[in-house]
Amino acid sequence: MQIVRYTASYKSQWDDFVRGAKNATFLFLRDYMEYHADRFVDASFLFFEQEKMVALLPACIDEKEATLYSHRGLTYGGLILSNKSSTPQVLHLWETFLQQIATDGGIKKVIYKPIPHIYHLQPAEEDLYALFRSNAQLSARAVSSVMELDRLLVPQTLRKRGAKKANRLGVTLHQVEDCTAFWQVLSDTLEQKYAAKPVHSLLEMKRLHHSFPKEIQFFEARYRDEVVGGCVVYVSQQVAHMQYIAASPQGKSMGALDALFLYLIEVQYKEMRYIDFGTSVEQGGAYLNEGLIFQKEGFGARAVVYDTYEIKLG
């Protein structure tokens, strides 16, 4: 097993492997991963057997903490595997990898976020078994609300009523190329409710959309040409993931998001396998925002967990 740290010379090989992997999404393409290269020290790795690439690990490093993260700047990380990956192979490469980074890299801890199963094109939980074998401890668990579209639950009457109200009042729905107006609604909402800002800046999101116009899509709910709600959707091969969701106080009172969500479920993404409304927790999962998850589950979404594991080395 040969384990090599990523450099720009491997970009085309990396991206080709991601596109053919059984558990990867566009978030692992280098043009996406490197939009925040100034915030994180990249420490991604490529795995080879007999000069053939067999796996990738998107990662970054905190040298002061001697900690490797997979990946601090992404919603999920973990080993990217091919259809030919086997459990013994993954177990061997993971054990070899941990030994190498502890011995040669001085790493004392690994923080690992596996790719949730809804993004797997084929079963791909070999890494979870490898984590168990390396005594990894679950350190955080986020609950995301997911709909499986070929097994839809009936939306609650409250959600349908909200959508009808929005339609009656004249709220209109639009897919747009410029997210500036929605970003103001999103920023105001996060500032007022959580004294927080979006993880991505407006400029970053525009750049990412320019690089991935099919995968990153913007939707607005408008009332008399004013944006009162909307969302940013990340589209992978079988999942439409709501990356950002927000509505103004007026939009909330009008049921704008209810109308938008029903449109996305019944029209825009009806051919997808899953719609993921995103997580509703804080403090690593210790706190559940019941008001937020109530609306998502009102459409028939149910829990899929996004986990984080910690491995102490040495």
Key words describing this protein structure:
314 residues, alpha+beta, Aminopeptidase, 2 domains, 11-stranded mixed beta sheet, 4-stranded antiparallel beta sheet
Explain this structure to me?
The mean pLDDT is 95. The chain has helices at residues 11-20, 30-33, 87-103, 126-133, 157-169, 180-194, 202-211, 249-254, 256-268, 290-297, and strands at residues 2-5, 41-42, 45-49, 52-57, 60-62, 67-70, 80-81, 109-112, 137-148, 172-176, 216-223, 226-235, 239-247, 274-279, 281-282, 287-288, 302-312. The protein has 2 domains: 2-134, Aminopeptidase (3-Layer(aba) Sandwich), CATH 3.40.630.30; 146-305, 3-Layer(aba) Sandwich (Aminopeptidase). It is elongated and about 65 Å long. It has 10 helices and 17 strands. Helix 3 (87-103) packs across helix 4 (126-133) and helix 5 (157-169) packs across helix 9 (256-268). The relative contact order is 0.16. Helices cover 33% and strands 30% of the residues. The chain is of the alpha+beta class. The strands form 3 sheets. The chain has an 11-stranded mixed beta sheet. Strands 1-3-4-7 form a 4-stranded antiparallel beta sheet, with helices on one face. It starts with a strand and ends with a strand.
